[in-house]
Amino acid sequence: MCRSRRRSSSSARSGAEIEASRNGKRGMVLPFDQHSITFDDIIYSVDMPQEMKSQGVIEDKLVLLKGVSGAFRPGVHTALMGVSGAGKTTLMDVLAGRKTGGYIEGNITISGFPKNQETFARISGYCEQNDIHSPHVTVYESLLYSAWLRLSSEVDSETRKVGI
Ligand SMILES: Nc1ncnc2c1ncn2[C@@H]1O[C@H](COP(=O)(O)OP(=O)(O)O)[C@@H](O)[C@H]1O
Ligand SMILES: [Mg+2]
Prior knowledge:
Blueprint: E1 2-5, H1 15-22, E2 32-35, E3 37-47, H2 50-54, E4 61-72, H3 88-96, E5 103-110, E6 113-114, H4 117-123, H5 139-149, H6 157-160
Antiparallel strand pairs: 1-2, 3-4, 3-5, 5-6
Magnesium ion binds next to helix 3.
């Protein structure tokens, strides 16, 4: 699902950059690693909306995801399907760390390691449902465009194509 891009800075060069300079290559090298993401028994709830309370609902929490498990693997194009309102976007937002409110339970791992949001945000890209998508580009082109926008302007067009 996600491809990692190690950050480079003048003070901390990545292993790939150092290796590239040893090999006599110049410029920035983008090392892409593929990772899997697994999620186990994800429960996501929010405080009960006032509108529902005023209609007589007595529970304090509204559970939107009830024990959802699965995995996204590199090279496997995965479709998440369900009727409108099933919770597809909610699940993707929870996995991507885009939920700012609510209560998340369960385990999320990245290639077997517990997900750390700070690291995950650096190595992954997420095109949201609410992003403005052009009907004239393919899904692949949309992802490519999003990924390229995240690269530094120092990265030349040839290097940008690495990892496609
Ligand atoms: N913050 C929230 N408070 C209350 N209900 C919510 C909240 N976020 C999502 N929902 C509800 O959760 C359900 C799942 O929504 P969503 O994930 O957008 O579905 P999908 O993407 O599958 O169409 C919907 O019924 C939606 O109204
Ligand atoms: Mg949706």
